[in-house]
Amino acid sequence: MPAEKRQLNLNLFIYPGGHHEAGWRYKDSAPERVLDIAYYQELAKKAEASKFDALFFADGPALADNIRYASRFRLEPLTWISALAAVTERIGFIATASTTYNEPYNLARLFASVDHLSGGRAGWNIVTTGDASAALNFGFDRHPTHADRYERASEFVDVVTKLWDSWEDAALIADRQSGIFADTDKIHPINHIGKYHRVKGPLTLPRSPQGRPVYVQAGSSQDGRSFASRYAEAIFTAHQTLGNAQEFYADIKARVKSVGRNPDHVKVLPGISPFIGSTEAEARALHDEFNELTQPEYSLHQLRRIVDADLSSYDLDGPFPRELIRIEGERGASSRFHVVLDIIERENPTIRQLLHRLAGARGHWVQAGTPEQITDKIQEWFDNGAADGFNIMPPYLQGGFDIFAEEVVPLLRKRGLFRHDYDGATLRDHFGLPRPENTFSRPHRLSHLRIGHSTSKRYANT
Ligand SMILES: Cc1cc2nc3c(=O)[nH]c(=O)nc-3n(C[C@H](O)[C@H](O)[C@H](O)COP(=O)(O)O)c2cc1C
Questions:
Q1: C-alpha angle with apex 9: 7 to 14, nearest 5 degrees?
Q2: Structural domains of the chain ordered from first start
Q3: What is the ipTM of this complex?
Q4: Helix (H) or strand (E) holding 267
Q5: Nearest of 276, 291, 351 to residue 321 by alpha carbon
Q6: Parallel/antiparallel/unpaired status of strands 122-127 and 172-175
Q7: C-alpha span between 56 and 51 (Å, rounded)
Q8: Coil vs helix vs strand at 319
Q9: Which residues bind FMN (predicted)?
C-alpha cells in the first residue's frame, strides 16, 4: 500500500470584520452582525461542512487604539468558542490567550472545560502579548520586555501542562457499586514553586479528552522560535515570500528535532489572505477596490505600531524614508517588524504602496488570483517545504470565506491535497497529533509520584 498522501491542514482565521482593514466597509460585509452569535455559528458550520481543521480567534487584553476606523474590538475567545462548539460536532477551535496577562490556574480550568464540553476540540494559541498598553489594564506600570515575557511563558506553560496532567486518565471511576467517584491516588498536586508562579494544584476537573488542548504558538522571533520548538504542536506565522517561509519552516523543524521531538508533530501554518476572482484581472480589481476603502490615518497608525516611525508629515506617494527605521531593541526582536522591513528593502515601495501591502492582512501573504492560481500558490508552498497547511484569512466575511470554500477547496481535493471528510473526532486527530502521555503516569516518574501520592491523600482529606 502506498503511504497516504500528505494532507494540508486548514484553519479559518476569523477577524470579526474580515482581515482587510477596510473589509468591514465592503458592500458585501455585514458589520451590523459582528456581535451576533448566529453570524459566527453560520461560519463555524460552513467551515465544518468544508472539513476545515479549526476556527482560529486572535485576542489581546486591551482595546486596539484606533478603533475609530476599523472593526477591531475583541470578543473573549474562550467564551466565543464555547458557543460555537455547541452547534458543531467535529471542527476544532483555537483560542488565543496571553501568558503575560493571565494566571495559569484560571486558564488551565477554562481550556480544560472547553476541551471537555467540546469533546476534545480545543487548541490554545499561546501568546505573550505584544501590545504594551495591556499592562495598564492589569495594574502594572510597564509591559515586561520581550525576553521576560517569553521566560514567563515557558514557566506558565509548564504549570498549565502539569495541571492538565494532575488527574491521570484513570482517575475518574464513577462506580455506582463501590460508591467511588474518583481514585484520589491518581489525582496529584503539582506543588509548583517558580520565578513567576506558585501553584499547588491539582486542577478542579479530570484530564480532558485530548489529554491537553493542542498547543499553538504564533511568535517567529528568535525567542519565539525557541519557545515553539519546545512546546508548539502548530505554529502560526506570517511570510511574504516562498524563500522566507522555507527558511522559517526548515529552522523550526530542525529546532524541534534538536530537542528530541518529532518534526511531523509540529505543523507550520502560515497565513494567506486570498482575493479571488473568475479572472486574474477581476481578482486584482477586487483587491484594488478594498484598498480604495482604506483610510490613511488608520493605516499610518498601524504602520507606526510596527516600525515606530511617524510618517504623517510625508507625501504618501513619495518613497518610503528607510532612514527613519531603527532596528535595535525590542522592535528588532519582533518578527513582524522584520516582515515589514523585508518588504521595504525588497520592493522599495512608496508609503502608500506599503500601506496597501499591509492593509490586506498586517504583513501576512495576500494573493489575488483565480481559484486555480490560489490553489497553485498553496500547493507550491506545501510541496516545497514552506508549509504544512494554512490559516485562511478572508479579507471580508462571509463571502470571502464562501468563495474559498466553493472554488478553492474542491481544487485542493481534486489534487489529493485536502480531506473529503474527517477521519477522527478531536482537533489532535485532524492535525495528526498524538494524545500526549500523562507526565504523572510515566513509569520513570513513579518515585516522584510516591511523594505526590502522600500529598494527594492530604489534599483529599482537606
Ligand atoms: C497568525 C498569527 C496570529 C497571531 N495572533 C496573535 C494574537 O491573537 N494575540 C497576540 O497578542 N499576538 C498574536 N500574534 C503575534 C505573536 O504571538 C507575537 O506576539 C508577535 O509575533 C511578536 O512575537 P515575536 O516577536 O516572537 O514574533 C499572532 C501572530 C500570528 C503570525
A1: 160
A2: 9-291+364-461 (3.20.20.30)
A3: 0.95
A4: strand 267-276
A5: 351
A6: unpaired
A7: 14
A8: strand
A9: 59, 96, 146, 150, 220-221
Confirm whether residue 59 is marked as ligand binding.
yes
Contacts of 311 (CB under 8 A, 6+ apart): 300, 303, 304, 321, 324, 351
Q: What single letter denotes the amino acid at residue 153?
A: A
Whose alpha carbon is nearest atom 21 of ligand 1?
Answer: 219
**Which of 96, 99, 342 should be mutated for ligand 1, with most atoms under 8 A from CB?**
96
What's the gap in Å between 174 CA and the centre of ligand 1?
Answer: 42
CA angle 167, 78, 100 (to 5 degrees): 80
The response to whether residue 375 sits with its C-beta less than 6 Å from ligand 1 reads no
Output the pTM of the full model. Answer: 0.93
- pLDDT one-digit tens code per residue, 222-279: 899 999 999 999 999 999 999 999 999 999 999 999 999 999 999 999 999 999 999 9
Identify the CA nearest to 250 among candidates 268, 262, 265, 232.
268
- 188 near 452, Cβ under 8 Å? yes
